[in-house]
Write a structure and sequence with these properties.
The chain is α/β, with parallel strands linked by helices. It folds into three domains: 112 residues, no CATH class; 130 residues, Beta-Lactamase, CATH 3.30.450; 198 residues, Rossmann fold (3-Layer(aba) Sandwich). The chain is 44% helix and 21% strand. It is built from 20 helices and 16 strands. It has a seven-stranded antiparallel β-sheet, with helices on one face. Strands 10-9-11-12-8-13-16 form a seven-stranded mixed β-sheet, sandwiched between helices. The protein has a two-stranded antiparallel sheet with strand order 14-15. Strand 11, helix 13 and strand 12 form a beta-alpha-beta unit. Helix 13 packs across helix 15. It starts with a helix and ends with a helix.
Length: 526
């Protein structure tokens, strides 16, 4: 039988069966390639997962090589169950939150994780790069070396999860570079004075500051693009002994995707906050010192609001992260754009929710509280130590007790505690006195750990931070007590209003869950 006869025998059905029986069926091949790709991708994710002890990493790599997605799903369920036990939130709710975070992460950064990591690029507020600012002169090689050093300093700070970069003159010939990582300063480098002065000038140039002025304090800002991400920086300079000091704040680039559960809010606190957020009007005031995570918590609260059905307008200094479907206004004193003036204009733009980055003066506080009285939900932050001192601060600004009591619905003070490194934390040895104290306050002392240190946490024993919050709901009784205040001193001495701080007790609960240590509680809360 010839070739033509063979072709004639194969009917349409025969062709289908033959295609399916092929060893390299296109559909099977496609799914095989996707599966192998996912396995290799999840191996990279497993490498940095704190859920797997270091000694089991090699075994986990082998398992992931053949069953990557399945193994990663098991780890995700274990992690979700662990968080559910720690926060008393339902597993289903946490699992939904995890999936939601993954989707938002993909939307915000696209497929940056799958691309080869690019070098860092520094840009000024108008989008000009450092090369454009410096141009191409005769000293191109020397300038290029300084620019590369500047980029390396910024890039290293981002890689190490720093919140601040401090460049200080040690003496006439040496400058010190320190990074604030998880709230603690670490010295990372010492550079010769001549070189570091050139680095400072390059940062000032990209930040829009006057290079010639070395004594008068200046402020500026710049942005960096790295691996598909855009990170914002705020710069402040000041003349000090032996030279010029530079402080660079790295704004939280993950704030727009933050949520209340991940930052450390318990289920009980979550219910209180969501109940306040669901109200049509009133002010939610967040307080704490600089670097206590107020802005991140503020963004997490705003993420709980349906911004498609409610008109959300924020006034910030500066804007730390972009919130989709929200109108964000940045303060600019040089252009006469202040908190008070912006708030007045916002009230004419039909807002449902108003967010005030920081209350600094009487005018801003009064406008915000009056807006909370007239049908607007207002979020705001204020620099102070506790819920009680927040009321003292408002009274000290000249706000009447009646306006405070009628506008406020919730006060929240917070701090950031370092998390114990999951790879190296060890059970703590407790004294008999501490055991008795934990028994007295009815907390489990069998799951308390302390820091040890490993390569993953840079020998500190801690990795990342978690918020500890003290919530105060403004009840009718508390409103009546605030209205009775005649002098600020009455609140300070507690003659009229009895407000207790629960920060330490909330922190001890996280110690009992093995999240942080007693040493960290003492360092942050005293």
């Amino acid at each position: 039988m010839g070739i033509l006869g063979f072709i004639h025998i194969l009917t349409e059905n025969d062709l289908t069966v033959a295609a399916i029986s092929l060893l390299f069926n296109p559909i099977k091949l496609f799914f095989l390639i996707v599966w192998v790709y996912l396995c290799f991708y999840f191996i990279q994710r497993i490498q940095f997962s704190p859920l797997i002890p270091h000694k089991y990493k090699s075994v986990s790599y082998i398992i992931t090589l053949f069953a990557g997605p399945i193994f990663w799903l098991i780890l995700l369920i274990v992690d979700t169950s662990k968080k559910a036990v720690q926060t008393n939130v339902s597993i289903l709710e946490l699992f939904k939150q995890q999936i939601h975070n993954i989707i938002r992460s993909i939307q915000s950064r696209g497929f940056a994780h799958f691309k080869q990591e690019e070098g860092i690029q520094l840009l000024d507020s108008s989008g000009r790069s450092m090369d454009e600012i410096y141009g191409h002169g005769d000293k191109k090689r020397e300038e290029s070396k300084i620019l590369d050093l500047t980029k390396d300093i910024i890039s290293d700070a981002i890689e190490q999860r720093s919140s601040d970069i401090l460049i200080d003159p040690t003496d006439d010939i040496t400058y010190t570079i320190r990074l604030r990582i998880d709230g603690v300063l670490r010295e990372v480098k010492q550079i010769k004075s001549v070189v570091c002065k050139a680095i400072i000038n390059s940062i000032k140039a990209i930040s829009g500051m006057d290079i010639a002025e070395k004594r008068r304090p200046q402020d500026g800002a710049f942005i960096a693009k790295k691996a598909g991400q855009t990170i914002s920086f705020r710069v402040a300079s000041a003349g000090v002994i032996n030279g010029e000091k530079l402080s660079i704040r790295i704004l939280n680039r993950n704030a727009s995707t933050s949520n209340l559960i991940d930052i450390g809010i318990t289920q009980k606190q979550y219910s209180v906050i969501t109940d306040a957020i669901s109200k049509p009007s009133g002010m939610i005031l967040l307080c704490g010192p600089t670097g206590s995570g107020k802005t991140t918590t503020l963004y997490a609260m705003l993420n709980e609001i349906d911004r498609y059905t409610r008109n959300v307008i924020t006034v910030e200094d500066p804007i730390e992260a972009v919130l989709p479907t929200a109108s964000q206004i940045e303060i600019n004193p040089k252009a006469d754009i202040t908190f008070a003036k912006s708030l007045r204009s916002i009230l004419r733009q039909d807002p449902d929710v108003i967010c005030v980055g920081e209350i600094r003066d009487e005018e801003t506080a009064e406008i915000a509280l009056r807006a909370a009285q007239t049908g607007h939900l207002v979020f705001a932050t204020i620099h102070c130590d506790s819920n009680k001192t927040a009321l003292v601060r408002l009274l000290d600004l000249g706000i009447s007790p009646l306006l405070i009591s009628s506008g406020l619905i919730l006060l929240s003070s917070q701090r950031l505690l370092r998390r114990l490194c999951e790879r190296c934390k060890v059970p703590a040895e407790l004294s008999d006195g501490l055991i008795k104290e934990f028994k007295r306050i009815k907390l489990d002392y069998t799951n308390i750990f302390e820091a040890e240190g490993c390569k993953h946490c840079n020998e500190t024993g801690y990795y990342d931070r978690i918020a500890v919050c003290d919530l105060l709901t403004i009840t009718e009784q508390l409103k009546a007590d605030i209205n009775k205040i005649q002098l600020t001193s009455e609140l300070e001495t507690g003659n009229q209003v009895q407000i207790k701080s629960h920060l330490k007790s909330e922190g001890l609960k996280k110690v009992a869950l093995g999240i942080t240590s007693l040493e960290e509680i003492k360092r942050v809360l005293g």
